[in-house]
Amino acid sequence: MNPLPKIRQGFQHGVHPHPYKDQTSGLHTQGESKMLIKALFGKEVPVGQRSRDLEMTMNNVGKIVAILKSSSGILAFTAHETARPTEYPCVRCGRCAEACPYFLNPSLLSRLAKARLYDEMKSHSIMECVECGSCTYSCPSGIPIVQLIRAAKDNIRHKKRKSS
Amino acid sequence: MKQSDPQLLVQSAPLLQQGMTTPRAMRDVIYALIPVTLVAVWYFGLSALLVVGAAIAGAVLTEWVFSPQQEFQKSLSDHTTVLTGLLLGLILPPGIPLWMAFLGGSISIGLGKTIWGGLGQNLFNPALVGRAFLGAAFPTAMTTWTPPRAGADFFNLQASHLSLPFMRGEVDAVTSATPLGLMKFEQQSTPIAELIIGNTGGSLGETSAAIIIIAGVFLLLRRDLDWRIPASILITVFALSSILFAVDSSRYADPLFAVCSGSLLFGAIFMATDPVTSPMSPKGAWIFGIGIGVLVVLIRTFGGFPEGVMYAILLMNAATPLIDRYTQPRVFGSGVGSP
Fold first, then answer.
1. pTM, whole model, 2 decimals?
2. Can you tell me the ipTM of this complex?
């Protein structure tokens, strides 16, 4: 069941709901903290700022100990399910842009990444990407979009570190 | 006993993929065009198959000539080459010499796709590039319409089919006009029922409104096309034609006629929706569709040609990069004031 409407209502009336585990577990599907803030309060965390700047903090409720994001579970898939699909050229269908929670243009970013135009990627807000992977999941042409973006971001950070 | 190593594959997430693939979408469009082709065969006999076959042959052969050895298999496997040939064949007049249909297919792939850098890179719809070329090069053959025969004389081929390149072909004794031509030059309307079943003169695949709509619904249900594009085109044409009809109903066609006649439905459903040459964002799709609708009505009403769908789509294809640039979605968290 989606607990969001109930919690949102609670906040609007100044009642802070108890962070019951069963009530909030559904929120994990919202994933990332900025998305959760948008869903609960209708506020977007401005580019370049953090949730703290909106006087908010997001904690993983029901779990007092911080968990490592990278080791939260083991997923079992068959070889068939995880086989990389054949890659076809991008046909600009727009499904990746439709899927992107940050309203980026993954199609454009993947093209730029393949051409190694990292500066141009920066001007298209590549650093806002949270690497959720919705673009790769939704791409009918089987292009590893988020993987390309990830590699480009690494490259950009690496350059920045070198120059500073 | 030798133990086999476990097969480890290190990949970066996400590992899963939804089931929709680009080749599947293209194959769906080909499936949707099969009934349209069959209706064309019903009305125009063996001619329909020959013209479509010649266009596909031209497209595939050109793809083969311009593909590197290993690439040809792959470029055929995404079905777009055959689809381009098929689309071109269906928008040609039934009596066109076969060598012209073949040349059109070849131009579609060569100048419409390959020269831009292959699938996904072209600015203009390849099939329409082929048709625009044929229209400019062979204006007579491209505006000679044969009357529909509705199942009769299946094997009765037209002599014009087999005319040799650059020779004056035999002129068919029987020609007819398209409903739009009759409307424009003789102010003579065609009953809507005829337009729905397709018993009129016109390009092979575009005469029957009913079968095109059914094919479009199939593609919509399969989520292969963006519904906004055909919807905005048809709504715009209907609205503008209604205004013109209200102003002077003796000179202008009624809106239902405007929507069902010519290549409007075929163009709106199969041509304008090509993802490569249409805008990416939903907002862009609306602008694109409305632009096509306005241009179609303008060309039909005030232009020299009875039909303007091809030029309308090509012009909006050219505007697509610009539309894309101005309809970029606002990045999350940008443009909101700092607290």
1. 0.85
2. 0.82
